[in-house]
Design brief:
- This protein is an alpha+beta fold.
- The chain is built from 12 helices and 24 strands.
- The strands form 5 sheets. Strands 1-3-2-4-5-8-9-12-13 form a 9-stranded mixed beta sheet, with helices on both faces. Strands 14, 15, 16, 18, 21, 23 and 24 form a 7-stranded antiparallel beta sheet that branches. The protein has a 4-stranded antiparallel beta sheet with strand order 17-22-19-20, with no helix packed on it.
- A hairpin with a 5-residue loop joins β19 and β20 (455-466).
- α3 (73-85) packs across α4 and α5 packs antiparallel against α6.
């Protein structure tokens, strides 16, 4: 690197011929980790005519330096791209691959503008870190923050105690102990904003509190608002049940708005699963990334797309990708589009009504309000969704029966549909609510109920608010985006509650600061649905 730090990489080359374009992946998870090799397939890419570089980021595994997540990725990305372009056998053109953290290292390198970087293919990565990585709607993304940070602590402790085996064993043992009991107890520890587990293991630099005390640190991985600076094409791949699904969409939208060539593929997938079986739903064989509706595997389509930009004189290989390829859930089919969001989607109000009803007709006078008690000591358990958490918590669409049986979850259900209803785009809820607490959370979830009564989650969101106790106010909850067809005979269902734990940290209902609050109290919550206070979910409806 330009500051003299040595970062190490494995380089996979075709046996003969050349020159070849270079594909680069930069990761903090270990360049020799079998899961990374399976995901990136460097040998397969080398056989198909690429030089493939897999690099440990600064301070991780074989690379030198101190690791602080995100801090050095822009500058190190620039230096690494220039180095990779000059490798023997290179044609001087570099593309980048990989998902999640690897997707963000692509954007950071692109923003640094090395002249040899010609295309990126980021998958399942964020845009705004305060909208899905560190926080969402003001609540801490506790599920990913705690588990991911503890996992990264393993290599951190290995390096810290490399010269002291007597200290290394107990340190690793204590960390593994916490990893094993993350779901059972570690998630529950307070204060959430200064998590005791990070203090115990001395890995505060990996946790959410680092982002709170050092805004520049969190800004180091922010793509939002900067996509126009990356003057190159991007292939953006995400999943409707991925924790960074909205980030993938936002990166695509902003790139296109800036006039950059960009493509988008959105499957029904989670962060770690790209098969046809997601959660409790079998979306079909064609839903998998290996088939993409029998267009060919995602890996092959990505390679062909990258080759177009990295070997511009070569003959086209494989089918041309449309600007947008969406998997429409419910109908369970892939659909090619020319834009996102869809201009033909019409925002349509779906109103909460009295007696647990849900209807497209607005409420009548006197329908009043519903109430429940939210107790942080007994939060609503995370059950599916766009999550990345400890292994006990499965992502995707799951049966919501145990959630809907709780007294602290208001449930509103429509009549059976007489025809299919497609919802494709961003979903938002406008909730007229009051609390007797000075601070609280509002969580809204959209579900699909089949004729047998099984309720499956489609999308959800949260907003954390300060309140004037007892006074109603309208709050907007962003449920992010989806593409889902509610079939004829099915019903729409909406949950309103105040927690989804441990995906998001608990609001303690006291207004105490996140980094010191440990006391909590129950709160009475009221949701209005009358003519003056029409609580509703706004659906982007696409008519056939």
């Amino acid at each position: 690197m330009s500051d003299g730090t040595v970062l190490r990489a494995d380089v996979h080359r075709p046996v003969t011929g050349g020159p070849y374009p270079v594909l680069l992946a930069r990761l903090p998870y270990g360049k020799n980790f079998p899961m990374m090799s399976a995901m990136l397939d460097p040998l397969g890419l080398a056989r198909s005519g690429f030089i493939v570089v897999i690099q440990d980021t600064r301070g991780r595994f074989a690379s030198e330096g101190a690791w602080e997540p995100w801090t050095y990725e822009e500058n190190d990305g620039y230096d690494t791209v220039r180095w990779a372009a000059a490798l023997p056998g290179s044609n001087g053109r570099v593309g980048m691959i990989g998902g999640s953290y690897l997707g963000n290292t692509q954007w950071m390198a692109a923003l640094s503008k090395p002249p040899e970087l010609k295309a990126i293919a980021p998958q399942i990565t964020w845009s705004e870190p305060e909208d899905g990585l560190f926080t969402r709607g003001g609540a801490i993304e506790l599920g990913i923050t705690v588990h991911w940070s503890l996992l990264q602590g393993l290599d951190t402790l290995m390096k810290r105690h490399a010269d002291d085996p007597a200290a290394l064993g107990p340190a690793l043992g204590a960390l593994v102990h916490d990893l094993d009991r993350t779901a059972g107890s570690v998630y529950w520890e307070l204060p959430a904003g200064r998590h005791p587990a990070f203090q115990r293991h001395g890995i505060q630099e990996l946790g959410f509190e680092h982002a709170r005390r050092d805004p520049e640190w969190s800004a180091a991985c922010r793509v939002a608002g900067r996509q126009a600076e990356a003057d190159l094409p991007s292939l953006n791949v995400g999943g409707w049940y991925d924790i960074f699904s909205q980030g993938t969409l936002d990166n695509y939208v902003e790139s296109r708005a800036a006039g950059r060539p960009a493509a988008l593929i959105m499957g029904p997938w989670t962060h770690t699963g790209q098969t046809g079986q997601i959660g409790d739903v079998n979306f079909g064989m064609a839903a998998s990334a290996d088939l993409l509706g029998f267009r060919g595997g995602l890996a092959a389509l990505q390679s062909a797309w990258l080759r177009k930009w990295l070997t511009p004189d070569a003959a086209p290989s494989g089918p041309e990708l449309p600007p947008v390829l969406l998997f429409v859930m419910g109908r369970n089919e892939w659909r090619e589009e020319q834009e996102w969001p869809l201009s033909r989607a019409v925002d349509t109000d779906l109103f909460l009504r009295a007696d647990g009803a849900l209807a497209f007709d607005p409420p009548q006078a006197g329908e009043g309000a519903d109430s429940y008690v939210y107790d942080p000591a007994d939060p609503v358990p995370t059950t599916g969704g766009a999550i990345l958490m400890a292994g006990e918590y499965r992502p995707g669409p799951l049966d919501q029966a145990r959630v809907e049986a709780r007294t602290d979850v208001l449930v509103y259900t429509s009549e059976p549909l007489t025809e299919d209803l497609e919802v494709t785009g961003r979903v938002r809820a406008f909730v007229h609510a009051a609390s007797d607490a000075p601070s609280t959370d509002w969580v809204v979830r959209l579900c699909d109920v089949d004729p047998e009564g099984v309720s499956l989650n489609v999308a959800d969101g949260i907003v954390r608010v300060d309140t004037t106790p007892g006074e109603f106010a309208e709050h907007i909850v962003d449920l992010w985006s989806t593409s889902h067809v509610f079939r004829a005979g099915h019903r729409l269902r909406v949950h309103v509650t105040s927690s989804n734990f441990p995906r998001w940290d608990r609001n303690l209902n006291t207004g105490e600061p996140l980094d010191s609050g440990t006391d909590f109290r129950p709160a009475r919550q009221d949701i209005a649905h009358d003519t003056a206070r029409p609580s509703r979910v706004v659906l982007p409806v696409v008519r056939s």
